[in-house]
């Protein structure tokens, strides 16, 4: 359960940090947007290291599914854009893939 909390918070901080760059470079906002953006990205990185996983790559792959869900929620909540049905289908496929990666059987070569 704690992993999912860390994944969700990490996703929020990553999206918020990248959004700061988006606002500065794409929307012409002040470069001061970089101060909270960089802090947010640092918190993202710290939170992702708190996830209990044997391998970083597998933790990041599982995180990807949570990140995608959070991104679509951000689209709706912050950018006030209604997600399309295809957005939700894509979310579902990504979450299934992330779950398979995280929980699938582990095979080792002899």
UniProtKB/TrEMBL annotation:
According to UniProt, the name of this protein is Uncharacterized protein
Q: Which family does it belong to?
A: Belongs to the UPF0060 family.
The cross-references to HAMAP family, in alphabetical order and at most eight, read: UPF0060
Query: How is this protein situated with respect to the membrane?
Result: Multi-pass membrane protein
Which UniProt keywords are listed?
Cell membrane, Membrane, Transmembrane, Transmembrane helix
Which residues are listed as membrane-spanning? 7-25, 31-48, 60-78, 84-104
What organism is listed for this UniProt entry? Pseudomonas lundensis
In which compartments does the protein localize? Cell membrane
> What Pfam family is a match for this entry?
UPF0060
Q: Which domain of life is it from?
A: Bacteria
């Amino acid at each position: 359960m704690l992993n999912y909390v860390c994944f969700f918070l990490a996703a929020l901080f990553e999206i918020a940090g990248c959004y700061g760059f988006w606002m500065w470079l794409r929307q012409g906002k002040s470069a001061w947007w970089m101060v909270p953006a960089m802090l947010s990205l640092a918190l993202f990185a710290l939170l992702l290291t708190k996830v209990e996983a044997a391998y970083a790559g597998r933790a990041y792959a599982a995180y990807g599914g949570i990140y995608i869900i959070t991104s679509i929620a951000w689209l709706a909540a912050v950018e006030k854009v209604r997600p399309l049905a295809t957005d939700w289908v894509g979310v579902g496929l990504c979450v299934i893939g992330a779950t398979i990666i995280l929980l699938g059987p582990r095979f080792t070569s002899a």
